[in-house]
TrEMBL record:
Gene Ontology MF, one: RNA lariat debranching enzyme activity
Gene transcribed to yield this protein: Dbr1
Region Disordered, annotated ranges: 386-538
Protein name: DBR1 enzyme
Biased composition (Polar residues): 415-427
Main subcellular location of this protein, as a coarse class: nucleus
Compositionally biased region (Acidic residues): 396-405, 431-442
Protein's cellular compartments: Nucleus
Source organism: Alaudala cheleensis (Asian short-toed lark)
Domain of life: Eukaryota
One GO CC term on file: nucleus
């Protein structure tokens, strides 16, 4: 079947679906499924806009609300994960996944589903070491800290995914797995995004949690977004035994939604021709959720997942074939996900704007039904209980607070040996350097693998964006965002989620007084949301 893959949508659903229609008219290609790798921005109303971690001037309604209200319907089944520019209050209603609009499905904090026999998994958010070991404690109305921590990946989601044993066909993450750039054309990547050089050379660009999942799951395809540049790689995995067949992952990072351009990629994926056309639950994933339900945590305290270190009575939560069989029997072997989308908030009305609408913490009926069916803990219900009990565990702040340092308090040692300075260039909510960005013509490029990891995968570049299994990537596409991402600053001087390590790190030449002579510092999310400038550029 044909699968369309998109990068950061940023709420521009009309443009995304119009691109699919254009693709069908020009190339007679109609995808059976659309995947979006985060920054989807399922914004229903003005209250949702207040829950997006972007400066106020970049909070635009875009077009999702038309699909939420029923005015429009997605022309193709769409499955997406969350990024770091989302209406977090809306997505938080569906921690285990669910429909955000008819024919548009969110995978939740982490999730696995099936479509036509193809197994699709994903994890939402971006990695931040100081929030990684916390529970999902945030709820609206958010303060200056929780509006950001709400979209940070948690170790419990990674732990759940690592319990999977059956093969994964497709996996999605918003930020890239750390080190994946060593398996593709690294030279070309640094020409397009020269300010990545420090993190690439120190091997700190990307998410260590996603890298851990890549090594464990070994999916056939891995799709990401976040960095607003197209990049292909091929990773040959090491085998654990002589009997194990070698596995490889085809990685592709997608650019953001660009007006008047074909930013989508189409790939051919083997599927079960006898399978139905409905989106289905994955029996092993449901069994894992049931097995790990006791680990659900809604506190701010840091904690580690069970591991074989002598401190835990149980550390293996992978499920048996018998447990999977029990799930199938509970569902009468009917894994079809019910089309039970429900409106849980007022929809934006252009004729009656409500700029003072406040976000509220909502229990979504879809989540209630899902938890009741499988005997799971409703995370939002647990948070509500904690608030009512006044225990302070998972309690939400209703008053705005001054923005805290990104660590909040003295950070305990992370499971990953990493400092946050290495994450600064790939998190759009942090500062970035305004660099020159390769205007060279790279129309004839091929994969330039790392000497240490010579892949057997050859990537060709062409102007056609209909991708077969070879995962071809167009070099001119990859150049789309080289300079248009790097607009000059002049906006907010606010520095968000910046650790002491980041503040002390000198990334540009400076005199004795610390004054920069040439390069400017700017906020990446200014570039992300500067739609008018992009239109002019295009």
């Amino acid at each position: 079947m044909k699968v369309a893959v998109a990068g950061c949508c940023h709420g521009a659903l009309d443009k995304m679906y119009e691109t699919l229609e254009l693709l069908q008219r020009r190339h007679n290609v109609r995808p059976d499924l659309l995947l979006c790798c985060g920054d989807f921005q399922a914004v229903r109303n003005e209250a949702d806009l207040r829950c997006m971690a972007v400066p106020a001037k970049y909070r635009h309604m875009q077009t999702f609300y038309r699909y939420y209200s029923g005015e429009k319907k997605a022309p193709v089944l769409t499955v997406f994960i969350g990024g770091n520019h989302e209406a977090s209050n809306h997505l938080q209603e569906l921690p285990y996944g669910g429909w955000v609009a008819p024919n548009i499905y969110y995978l939740g904090y982490a999730g696995v589903v099936r479509f036509r026999g193809v197994r699709i998994g994903g994890i939402s958010g971006i990695f931040k070491s100081h929030d990684y070991r916390k529970g999902h404690f945030e709820c609206p109305p958010y303060n200056q800290q929780t509006i950001r921590s709400a979209y940070h990946v948690r170790n419990i989601e990674v732990f759940k995914l690592k319990q999977l044993k059956r093969p994964i066909d497709i996996f999605m993450s918003h930020d890239w797995p750390r080190s994946i750039y060593h398996y593709g054309n690294k030279k070309q990547l640094l020409k397009m995004k020269s300010f990545f050089r420090q993190e690439v050379e120190s091997n700190t660009l990307g998410s260590p949690a996603a890298s851990e999942l890549l090594q464990h799951l070994k999916p056939t395809y891995w799709f990401s977004a976040h960095l607003h540049v197209k990049f292909a790689a091929f990773m040959q995995h090491e085998t654990n035994s002589k009997e194990e067949l070698p596995k490889a992952t085809k990685f592709l990072a997608l650019d953001k939604c660009l007006p008047h351009r074909d930013f989508l990629q189409i790939i051919d994926v083997e599927h079960d021709p006898n399978a139905g056309d409905s989106l289905e639950y994955d029996a092993e994933w449901i069994a894992v959720l049931k097995a790990t339900n006791s680990l659900v945590n809604v506190t701010q305290g840091t904690w580690n997942m069970p591991e074989k270190n002598g401190l835990h009575a149980k550390w293996d939560y992978s499920v048996t074939e018998e447990a999977i069989k029990e799930v199938l029997e509970e569902m009468n072997h009917d894994l079809k996900i019910p089309c039970n989308f429900t409106l849980t908030a007022a929809c934006y009305d252009p004729s009656k704007p409500q700029k003072n609408m406040e976000p509220v913490h909502t229990i979504n009926p879809q989540t209630t039904e899902f938890c009741a069916q499988f005997g799971l803990t409703d995370i939002n219900d647990r948070i509500q209980q904690a608030k009512e009990e006044g225990s302070g565990r998972g309690e939400c702040e209703e008053e705005e607070e001054e923005e805290m340092d990104s660590t909040g308090s003295a950070e305990e040692p992370s499971e990953y040996n990493t400092d946050n300075s290495g994450l600064s260039s790939f998190n759009p909510d942090e500062i970035m350097l305004d660099e020159e960005g390769g205007d060279e013509d790279l129309s004839t490029c091929s994969v330039d693998p790392s000497p240490d990891h010579p892949p057997e995968f050859s990537t060709s570049f062409s102007d056609i964006r209909i991708m077969p299994d070879s995962m071809a990537v167009s070099s001119d596409d990859a150049m789309d965002s080289n300079n248009e991402d790097l607009e000059k600053s002049g906006g907010s001087k606010e520095v968000e989620e910046k650790s002491p390590t980041e503040r002390s790190l000198k990334r540009i030449g400076a005199d004795e007084n610390g004054n920069s002579a040439v390069k400017k510092i700017k906020r990446r999310n200014q570039a992300i949301y500067a739609a008018e400038d992009e239109d002019k550029t295009d």
